[in-house]
Specification:
Aspartate Aminotransferase, domain 2; Aspartate Aminotransferase, domain 1; 406 residues; alpha/beta; 13 helices
Length: 406
């Protein structure tokens, strides 16, 4: 029997946080307590009214095939909500329901990128961007960020230098994973001017759009000339603690959404039927549950930020969005005499039980990067465990000079 698999599989990456999860699970199986900061899952229950709506639909027999675009009630609800929040006009023709937010990424690339086309994407950033670009034969063009007093800003010079006549797509993740970075108005307007000038399609990954602890979020799609060239990635996972439900949507120009629907027919036929009624309830029903989720996440953010800032050698920007912190640990990294990010991560896990991802889990570091960063996801850990784990971490780093290899 032949065992030669398709050569293109060598270009397919993975969501590297799951590899850290396996390492943490093995450590826990040895009888150790693990403090799970590595995976952006949510250990808060989905609001009861959403679960009941899905259960009711299940009992009512909503278990068969449906059109790949999704049920009309959910498409209408999404068009209304997205339209109001982004200050644009949408109808159901602009909405294709997806089995989660992630499938929007490969569909966007399959629909708009030919082999060899250049695709700009954030690095550090969600690793599936790069994976799908390379798997489908694109030319990956990673752009980086520059730290500043308000967090991180896009390296505009690098973006401008990489664009040429083959560049076709720009992937943009405001309220960013892993950094929690947030564009100001000037940066958003610069992107809009750039993509209009170079006639680029934009994927606006808005998974964390509603995870805002103060103020109102903004979408690039609301700027002049952007709605007709932008696809929004929407997901229910974060706002409503529905990570395992696998429910999301692509929102974009109607003609392009027809192509997304065709890709969906080929990939998954349709998104799960009865859970879409849970999505309708999430958007139109009582919002107390989503507010409770956000309140709890804010408590965790504040607790984690305060404790990390007590550790000498940590430099931290506390973002107003997402559920991630991305501290600079360069000083601690060198104090430990770490040989690599993996050495640093693994030693901390085994000495303290604190499990996190590093900058390398979000793309290969770019040239001239000389600072060391790690990512803490606080969506899956209680305040009490945050405080307990940070106590262990602080104690460990106070003694880490003696732990450095000779």
């Amino acid at each position: 029997m032949k065992t030669d698999y398709a050569s293109r599989l060598t270009k397919l990456g993975t969501e590297t946080a799951f590899a850290v999860s396996q390492d943490a699970a093995e450590f826990a199986a040895e009888g150790n307590k693990v403090y799970p900061f590595h995976l952006g899952d949510i250990n808060i229950p989905t609001p009861e009214n959403i679960m009941e709506a899905a259960n009711r639909a299940l009992r009512d027999g909503k278990t068969g095939y449906i059109p790949s675009v999704g049920i009309p009630q959910l498409r209408d609800a999404l068009a209304e909500k997205i339209g109001i929040e982004r200050d644009i006009s949408l109808t159901r023709k602009n909405v294709v329901v997806q089995p989660g937010g992630k499938p929007v990424i490969p569909k966007f690339i399959q629909a708009l990128m030919n082999p060899g086309d250049g695709v700009l994407y954030p690095n550090p950033g969600y690793p599936i961007y790069e994976s799908q670009i390379e798997f489908h034969g694109g030319n990956p063009l990673p752009y980086g960020y520059i730290p500043n007093t308000n967090g991180f800003s896009i390296d505009r010079d690098r973006v401008e230098d990489m664009i040429d006549s083959n560049t076709q797509l720009f992937i943009y993740n405001n309220y960013q994973n892993p950094m929690g970075g947030e564009s100001n108005q000037d940066e958003m307007e610069w992107i809009a001017h750039l993509v209009n000038r170079h006639d680029l399609w934009v994927l606006s990954d808005e998974a964390y759009f509603n995870i805002q602890y103060s103020g109102n979020p903004k979408s690039i799609v609301s700027l002049p000339g952007m709605q007709e060239r932008t696809v929004i990635l929407y997901t229910f996972s974060k706002t409503y603690a529905m990570t395992g439900w696998r429910l999301g949507a692509a929102i974009g120009p109607a003609d392009l959404m027809k192509i997304f629907a065709k890709l969906g027919v080929n990939d998954e036929s349709c998104t799960n039927h009865f859970i879409q009624y849970g999505g309708v309830e999430a958007l139109h029903g009582n919002q107390v549950g989503s507010h409770t989720i956000l309140d709890e996440l804010k408590k965790r953010r504040d607790a984690l930020s305060a404790k990390l800032n007590e550790i000498e050698g940590v430099s931290l920007f506390t973002p107003n969005s997402t559920f991630y912190l991305f501290p600079d640990v360069t000083e601690l990294y060198h104090q430990m005499g770490a040989h690599s990010y993996e050495d640093f991560r693994s030693r901390v896990l085994r000495e303290t039980g604190v499990s996190f991802c590093t900058r390398e889990h979000f793309g290969t570091p770019l040239p001239n990067e000389n600072r060391k960063y790690i990512r803490f996801a606080y969506s899956g850990i209680s305040v009490s465990d945050i405080e307990e784990s940070m106590g262990k971490l602080q104690k460990f780093f106070k003694t880490n000079n003696s732990l450095a290899p000779a």
